[in-house]
Backbone:
C-alpha cells in the first residue's frame, strides 16, 4: 500500500465506529452488477526503486541531441533557483487559493505576476494564467468576440483575421475551440518575399472584419510591421490582439505600444520565461488587456485588499465572471489553470530582471544571426524571407527537408522544424532556431553536419 | 512586502545574465522598446528569500490536512516529481521526431491503456490540460456526433443542479443551451424531472457520479436508459473518480464520453491552481471525435495520431501535447500503485470519509443526507447551527484554519444551505481524521461560548479575514510604484544597447 497509512487495527476500529462489517459494505449503494471490474490489463505495482530504473531507461530513449527546433517552444537557461523554490511543497501541493487567508503566498505571487506580465506587454492588466499559448489565443478570441457583441449587438457575426504567418497549431486550436461559435475565421496570406503580413493582404482577405490577430514575431521568426498593422486595424475600428513571445517583449515594442493606440489584448506562450521544454507541457498561456475590458477577461484574477485590521492582503477577485459563480453565464469555463508555471515564471522574471531578460533576447537574436551566417555558406542553402527576424529563420534547402533532418539526426543534430506539411508552398523549407543556450561550438557542429549531409 | 519594494535600479542576479557582449546588434531601433518594463531588480538571494517566505504563507498537502471536497487533495509522491525532472523528459522538445521521443510516448501510451482499463471506455485522448478543457472536448464531441448524423435539432444539455460550475459553462461554450435537473431529497437525480426534460432537443446529460452531494446515484442505469432512449449521450465528469477507482467503471454505467482529473485521482500536484490534466475518453461510437494528438503503437514503435489520421476529430486543443509532464507523473503513479493499489485508493478513501462522517455525526453535526453512505466525501450542513448559534459555514471554515486544517469546500454544492463538503482522501491516517473531528467539536463548543472566536477567525494566519468586496470594488490588480527610488520603470532607457550589455 504505497501511500495508505492504515494499519489493520485502524481499519477494524474505523469500521466499528462506522458500524460496518467490511470496507466492501461501504459500496453497498452501487448496484451489484456494476461492481465487477477487471483490472488485469493494468500492470502490477512496482517499488519506487524499480520505477526509478524503468524511467531512467525511458528518459534515455528521449534522445534530446543538439536541438535547433523552436516553432513555439524555446530552450533557454533557467536559473537553478527557479524550480528549487517553485517545487517547495507549500507552492507545489497547494490547491487553487479559495481560502485566501491560508493562501497568501500563491496569491501575492500571482499579483506580482500580473504586474510583471502587464508591464511586459505594455498593457494595464493581466489574468493569472491560461493553459498554454494556443488555447490562450482561443480564449482571447472568445473575449474579443464578446467585446464585439457588446459594441455591435449580439446578432453580429464577428469576422476574425488570422494571419497564416501565425503558428499553424494556434490556428488549429482556434478552429477547434472558437469554431463552434457563430464566427468567421479568415486566414490571411503572408508576403512571399518578406514573410510578413501586409496591409494589401489584409484588405484582400475580407472587406470587413472586427478582430485582427498580429503575431510578433510570427511563426517564421519574422518581425511584423506591428505599428502599421495596428494603425490600419484601429482606423477600421477593429480590435487588435497581439500574440507575442513574452521574452521578446523585454526588447521589442510591446503590444500596448503598437501604432498610435496600442493593441487591445495581448496573449501568448509563457514557456520562454522559465519553463522547461518538457515534451510540450505543462507551459502556461497569458492574457493581458486594457483596463476597460477587464470584466470580459477569462480566468483567475488576483486583487489586493485589506484585512479586518487594515493590513494588506490578496484575494481572487472579480469572481462574478467565473464558472463557479456564474455557471452557464461565465466568461469562460476555465477553472484549474497553470498556477505552478506562473510561480516558476515569476521567480524567473525576478532573477533575470528587465536588463537580464532584454540581454537574453539580444543574445538569442545574435546567436540566430551567427548560425544563419554560417549555414548560408553551405552551397544551395538560402534564407527565404527578407524581413528582420528575432531568434528563428527559414532556410530553403537543396533537397527534401525530411531526409535532411533524418541525416542530421545521425550526426546528433535536431536541425529544425519541417515547414512543408503546414505550408505546402514552402516545400524544402526549414525553420531553424538558436537561442542564448547555443555556443559557438554548437553552431559549428550544425554547420559541419549540414555540409556533410548536403555534399 | 511586494518584490518590487526590494528593487533597486540596476541591481541584478549577475550569475543569471549571459556574459557575452551584444555590441553588434542589428535590429532597427524603431522596433525596440524604449521604456523599461516593471520587473524586479533584485539580487539572487533577495528573490530566493522573498519567494521562500511567500511559500510559507500557504497551506498545502505537504504541510496541512487539506480536506477540500471534490478536489482530492491526496499526497503527491515526491519520488515521482524527482523522476519527472530527468533531463530526457524535461529537456525534450515536443516537435522532436517520433524516433527521438519514444521514452515519453511509451509512457503516454501506457497511461492511455490504464485509463481505458479503469474507466471501461474504448479510446482515450490525454491532451486536455484540465478538467474543464476535458469537458469542453467532451461536449464538442457530443455536438460533432449529433451533427454528423444530421441530428441538428439537439441543442440542449441537461445538467443536474449539483453539478460543478464548469459543466454548464462548458456546455454553453460549445453553443448548447443548459437545462437544469433537480436532485431529490436523498441526493439522487430526480428521475421524474429527468423523464419530463428529455426529448428530441436533448443532446446529452453531464453527470458526476458519485455526485458532488457525496452520494452515488443509485438510479444510474435508469438515467442512462432514459437519456439514451431519447437519443442523447451521457457525459461523465470524472472529478469524483477517486471514489470508485477499480470498483465500478463509467463505461459500465452507460457513459459515452468522460473526462478524468489526473491532478485529483492520479495524485499529480495541483500547484496552487494547476497545471492539471483532463484526459477525455469515449465509447466506440464517439471515439472518432476525440481530440488530437494521441499516441498509437505499431509493433514496438510509438507514433502520433493527428488530424490526418483522425479526420473526424474535433481537432487540437493545445499547442503541443497538453500537459505532457503531468501525463508522465500520472503514468508513474499508476505504475507505482498497480492494479491492486488503484483499487485500494477508492476503498480507503471511502473508509476515511465514512469514518469521519460517523465521528462528526456522533458529535452532533448534521449530515446533508443522513440516510446515505458517504462516498469518498460527504456534506454536513450547519443550517440549524446558523439559526441557534448565529454562526455560519464560513465562520467554521475560517476557524478551522486556526486549528491548522485547511477548510473543506464551503457553500458548494449550492443547493445545500450552510454546507461543508469534506473529502479526506485515502492518504490521511486515522490520527489526522481524529484530530480534525476533535477540532470540529471544539469549534462547535466555541460557537456556544465564545462566538467571536469564529466570527473574526482566522486569528493566527499571516492576515485576518480579507475584504473581498473592497477587492472587487476598488480594483487593484497591478502594483504601481509609489516613489521612483524604488523603481525606475518610468525612466526611459537612454540606449537599450548600453543597458543590455552591462552584465558581466
Residues:
Amino acid at each position: 500500500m504505497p501511500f495508505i497509512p492504515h494499519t489493520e487495527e485502524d481499519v477494524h476500529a474505523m469500521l466499528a465506529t462506522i458500524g460496518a462489517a467490511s470496507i466492501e459494505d461501504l459500496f453497498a449503494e452501487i448496484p451489484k452488477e456494476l461492481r465487477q471490474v477487471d483490472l488485469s490489463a493494468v500492470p502490477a505495482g512496482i517499488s519506487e526503486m524499480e520505477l526509478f530504473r524503468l524511467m531512467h531507461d525511458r528518459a534515455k530513449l528521449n534522445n534530446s541531441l543538439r536541438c535547433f527546433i523552436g516553432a513555439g517552444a524555446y530552450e533557454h537557461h533557467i536559473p537553478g533557483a527557479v524550480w528549487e523554490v517553485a517545487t517547495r511543497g507549500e507552492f507545489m501541493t497547494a490547491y487553487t487559493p479559495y481560502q485566501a487567508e491560508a493562501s497568501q503566498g500563491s496569491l501575492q505571487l500571482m499579483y506580482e505576476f500580473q504586474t510583471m506580465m502587464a508591464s511586459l506587454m505594455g498593457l494595464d492588466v493581466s489574468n493569472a494564467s491560461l493553459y498554454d499559448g494556443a488555447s490562450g489565443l482561443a480564449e482571447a478570441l472568445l473575449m474579443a468576440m464578446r467585446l464585439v457583441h457588446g459594441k455591435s449587438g449580439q446578432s453580429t457575426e464577428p469576422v476574425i483575421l488570422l494571419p497564416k504567418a501565425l503558428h499553424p497549431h494556434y490556428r488549429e486550436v482556434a478552429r477547434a475551440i472558437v469554431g463552434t461559435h457563430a464566427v468567421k475565421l479568415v486566414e490571411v496570406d503572408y508576403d512571399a518575399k518578406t514573410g510578413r503580413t501586409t496591409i494589401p493582404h489584409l484588405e484582400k482577405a475580407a472587406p470587413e472584419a472586427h478582430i485582427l490577430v498580429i503575431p510578433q514575431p510570427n511563426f517564421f521568426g519574422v518581425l511584423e510591421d506591428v505599428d502599421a498593422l495596428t494603425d490600419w486595424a484601429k482606423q477600421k475600428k477593429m480590435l487588435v490582439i497581439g500574440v507575442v513571445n513574452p521574452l521578446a517583449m523585454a526588447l521589442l515594442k510591446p503590444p500596448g505600444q503598437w501604432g498610435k493606440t496600442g493593441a487591445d489584448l495581448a496573449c501568448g506562450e509563457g514557456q520562454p520565461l522559465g519553463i522547461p521544454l518538457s515534451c510540450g507541457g505543462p507551459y502556461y498561456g497569458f492574457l493581458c488587456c486594457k483596463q476597460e475590458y477587464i470584466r470580459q477577461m477569462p480566468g483567475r484574477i488576483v486583487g489586493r485588499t485589506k484585512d479586518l485590521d487594515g493590513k494588506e492582503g490578496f484575494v481572487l477577485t472579480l469572481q462574478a465572471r467565473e464558472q463557479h459563480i456564474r455557471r452557464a453565464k461565465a466568461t469562460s469555463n476555465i477553472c484549474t489553470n497553470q498556477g505552478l508555471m506562473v510561480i516558476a515564471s515569476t521567480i524567473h522574471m525576478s532573477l533575470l530582471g528587465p536588463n537580464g531578460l532584454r540581454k537574453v533576447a539580444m543574445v538569442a537574436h545574435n546567436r540566430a544571426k551567427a548560425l544563419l551566417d554560417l549555414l548560408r555558406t553551405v552551397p544551395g542553402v538560402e534564407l527565404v524571407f527578407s524581413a528582420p527576424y528575432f531568434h528563428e529563420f527559414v532556410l530553403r534547402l537543396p533537397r527534401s527537408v525530411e531526409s535532411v533532418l533524418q541525416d542530421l539526426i545521425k550526426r546528433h543534430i535536431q536541425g529544425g522544424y519541417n515547414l512543408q506539411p503546414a505550408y505546402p508552398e514552402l516545400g524544402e523549407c526549414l525553420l531553424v532556431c538558436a537561442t542564448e543556450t547555443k555556443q559557438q561550438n554548437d553552431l559549428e557542429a550544425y554547420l559541419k553536419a549540414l555540409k556533410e549531409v548536403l555534399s | 512586502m511586494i518584490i518590487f519594494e526590494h528593487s533597486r535600479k540596476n541591481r541584478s542576479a549577475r550569475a543569471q545574465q549571459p556574459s557575452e557582449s551584444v555590441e553588434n546588434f542589428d535590429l532597427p531601433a524603431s522596433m525596440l522598446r524604449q521604456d523599461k518594463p516593471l520587473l524586479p531588480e533584485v539580487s539572487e538571494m533577495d528573490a530566493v528569500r522573498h519567494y521562500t517566505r511567500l511559500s510559507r504563507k500557504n497551506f498545502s498537502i505537504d504541510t496541512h490536512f487539506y480536506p477540500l471536497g471534490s478536489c482530492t487533495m491526496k499526497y503527491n509522491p515526491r519520488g515521482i516529481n524527482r523522476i519527472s525532472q530527468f533531463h530526457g523528459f524535461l529537456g525534450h522538445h515536443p516537435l522532436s521526431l517520433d524516433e527521438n521521443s519514444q521514452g515519453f510516448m511509451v509512457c503516454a501510451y501506457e497511461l492511455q491503456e490504464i485509463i481505458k482499463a479503469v474507466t471501461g471506455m474504448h479510446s482515450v485522448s490525454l491532451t486536455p490540460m484540465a478538467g474543464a478543457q476535458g469537458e469542453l472536448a467532451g461536449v464538442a464531441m457530443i455536438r460533432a456526433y449529433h451533427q454528423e448524423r444530421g441530428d441538428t435539432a439537439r441543442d440542449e444539455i441537461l445538467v443536474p443542479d449539483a453539478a460543478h460550475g464548469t459543466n454548464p459553462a462548458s456546455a454553453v461554450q460549445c453553443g448548447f443551451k443548459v437545462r437544469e435537473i433537480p436532485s431529490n431529497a436523498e441526493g439522487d437525480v430526480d428521475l421524474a424531472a429527468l423523464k419530463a426534460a428529455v426529448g428530441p432537443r436533448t443532446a446529452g446529460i453531464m453527470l458526476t457520479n458519485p455526485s458532488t452531494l457525496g452520494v452515488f446515484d443509485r438510479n444510474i442505469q435508469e438515467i442512462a436508459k432514459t437519456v439514451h432512449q431519447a437519443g442523447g449521450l451521457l457525459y461523465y465528469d470524472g472529478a469524483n473518480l477517486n471514489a470508485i477507482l477499480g470498483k465500478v467503471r463509467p463505461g459500465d454505467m452507460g457513459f459515452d464520453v468522460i473526462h478524468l482529473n489526473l491532478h485529483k485521482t492520479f495524485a499529480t500536484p495541483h500547484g496552487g491552481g494547476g497545471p492539471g490534466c483532463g484526459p477525455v475518453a469515449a465509447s466506440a461510437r464517439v471515439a472518432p471525435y476525440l481530440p488530437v494528438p494521441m499516441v498509437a503503437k505499431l509493433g514496438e514503435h510509438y507514433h502520433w495520431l493527428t488530424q490526418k489520421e483522425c479526420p473526424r476529430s474535433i481537432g487540437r486543443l493545445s499547442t503541443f501535447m497538453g500537459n505532457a509532464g503531468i501525463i508522465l507523473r500520472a503514468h508513474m503513479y499508476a505504475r507505482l500503485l498497480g492494479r491492486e493499489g488503484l483499487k485500494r485508493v477508492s476503498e480507503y478513501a471511502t473508509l476515511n470519509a465514512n469514518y469521519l462522517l460517523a465521528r462528526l455525526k456522533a458529535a452532533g453535526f448534521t449530515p446533508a443526507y443522513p440516510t446515505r453512505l458517504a462516498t469518498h466525501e460527504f456534506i454536513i450542513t450547519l443550517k440549524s447551527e446558523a439559526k441557534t448559534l448565529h454562526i455560519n459555514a464560513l465562520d467554521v471554515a475560517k476557524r478551522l484554519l486556526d486549528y491548522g486544517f485547511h477548510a473543506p469546500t464551503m457553500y458548494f454544492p449550492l443547493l445545500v444551505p450552510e454546507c461543508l463538503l469534506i473529502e479526506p482522501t485515502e492518504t490521511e491516517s486515522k490520527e489526522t481524521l481524529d484530530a480534525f473531528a476533535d477540532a470540529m467539536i471544539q469549534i462547535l463548543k466555541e460557537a456556544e461560548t465564545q462566538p467571536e472566536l469564529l466570527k473574526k477567525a482566522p486569528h493566527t494566519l499571516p492576515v485576518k479575514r480579507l475584504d473581498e468586496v473592497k477587492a472587487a470594488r476598488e480594483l487593484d490588480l497591478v502594483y504601481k510604484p509609489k516613489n521612483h527610488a524604488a523603481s525606475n520603470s518610468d525612466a526611459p532607457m537612454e540606449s537599450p544597447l548600453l543597458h543590455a550589455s552591462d552584465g558581466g
Q: What stands out?
A: The longest strand of chain A covers residues 211-216.
